[in-house]
Design goal:
Blueprint lengths: L8 H30 L4 H22 L8 H17 L13 E3 L3 E3 L1 H19 L7 H20 L4 H18 L3 H20 L2 H11 L10 H13 L24 H33 L4 H25 L17 H19 L6 H7 L3 H10 L13
Antiparallel strand pairs: 1-2
Helix pairs in contact: 1-2, 1-10, 1-12, 2-12, 3-4, 3-5, 4-5, 4-6, 4-11, 4-12, 5-6, 6-7, 6-11, 9-10, 10-11, 10-12, 11-12, 13-14
Length: 400
């Protein structure tokens, strides 16, 4: 039985530090536009501060909640049904910035179901793959149901349209299937139509084609399709090594669109320079290490896969956001985790980290028994048993 430990203090401190850093940077990036739109420079930072406090509360709930409760069938299927219902419901609300992504409650409160979809997918796939332990390479038994659920959520989110978040859902699904031991041929079958679908989503929408062409050469239409990319690169480039200083950035003064949300990393680059951006990148790298460490030390297969799904969703999104700002990939609206302005994203990601911390608290040092519980390859099991004859009578849990 796993020995109960303290939650990972380094992971906790990194998450809290990123969230508080986000509040500070939201103030710097949003002050000009907040003053113009609302008559006070503190409008967005107050809201972000409140959502961060709520998020910290949700994180503590996740830390106290035994993550094994999430593997219950009624909860996993109920959460999936609720998520699908909410993703359909968004189409009944008006567009905001050209997309059906939010369910609005009055004029000042909204909810983004795609943020819930990330956690729902990780929980559902972790449970299903645990119950199919030893059958990961069976196409119809395991692979097809996982792809069907992932594909359903991806299609609904992509239809909002929100191609960036849809891609992140696909990355989570692909990562968990790979980690569980799915056949590479099957993963190729999943990846090929996904790439075709992404290409189709770009080619079928003229504005996305313009974005892609702007990605190839943003300076060719610097005042049109390439405007946002050009302004982002100017912000990062003007920061130099040490930056212009906190709150001293110029591009946020109505030049760089969405400076306090999707492009806040550009403000970090301008005001804190290369040093600041590298420290922020290092923080996410440290988060990745501690998260994967928690996954490897999880006391059961469900905890390992759930932790890996949470970490993948957060870090992949962070890298994608930074890549957009640096014009390494075509422009897509997707927030920087913990740092960008946004209530739904902040609360759900902090709750997910709370679940991750709970998994780390119940973790154990890696040993032959732990590795046996994760293994699906018969040769690995045989070798481990030869090294540890004391576990000869152990049988994998959750098969069938």
């Amino acid at each position: 039985m796993a020995r109960k430990l303290q939650a990972d203090e380094w992971l906790f401190a990194t998450t809290v530090g990123l969230a508080l850093f986000g509040v500070v940077m939201v103030y710097s990036a949003s002050a000009p536009i907040a003053l113009q739109q609302n008559g006070t420079q503190y409008h967005y930072v107050i809201r972000q501060g409140l959502w961060t406090l709520i998020g910290f509360g949700a994180m503590f709930v996740g830390m106290r909640l035994d993550y094994s409760l999430l593997r219950r069938g009624w909860l996993a299927y109920g959460l999936l049904a609720l998520t699908v219902l909410l993703l359909v419901a968004v189409f009944g609300f008006g567009k905001i910035n050209g997309a059906h992504r939010w369910i609005r409650f009055g004029q000042s409160l909204s909810f983004q179901p795609s943020e819930l979809a990330k956690l729902t997918l990780a929980i559902f796939l972790a449970r299903l793959l645990e119950r199919r332990a030893g059958e990961e390479q069976l196409f119809w038994r395991t692979f097809a149901p996982c792809v069907a659920v992932t594909g359903l959520l991806v299609v609904l989110v992509a239809g909002e349209p929100d191609l960036g978040t849809a891609m992140m859902l696909g990355v989570v699904g692909l990562t968990l299937l790979f980690a569980a031991g799915a056949r590479l041929q099957h993963l190729g079958l999943m990846l090929a139509p996904a790439l075709v679908g992404v290409a189709g989503m770009i080619l079928l929408f003229p504005w996305r084609v313009k974005r892609f062409m702007a990605f190839l050469d943003p300076w060719a239409d610097a005042q049109g399709a390439g405007f946002q990319v050009v302004q982002s690169l100017m912000a990062v480039g003007s920061g130099g090594v040490h930056g212009l200083g906190f709150a001293q950035g110029k591009q946020k003064l109505f030049f760089l669109p969405f400076a306090h949300s999707d492009f806040i990393f550009a403000v970090v680059g301008e005001e804190l320079g290369l040093v600041g951006t590298l420290l922020l990148l290092g923080a996410f790298g440290f988060f990745l290490w501690r998260g994967v460490r928690a996954a490897r030390r999880a006391p059961d297969r469900f905890g390992m896969l759930l932790a890996l799904g949470i970490v993948t969703g957060i870090v992949a999104q962070a890298l994608f956001n930074m890549s957009v700002v640096l014009s390494l990939v075509p422009t897509k609206g997707i927030p920087l985790p913990f740092v960008s302005y946004g209530g739904t994203s902040t609360v759900f990601m902090l709750f997910a980290v709370g679940v991750l911390l709970n998994i780390s608290q119940q973790g154990t040092a890696l040993n032959d028994l732990t590795m046996l519980r994760y293994a699906s390859d018969a040769s690995v099991i045989a070798n481990a048993r030869r090294r540890a004859p004391v576990v000869q009578e152990w049988q994998p849990e959750g098969r069938g």
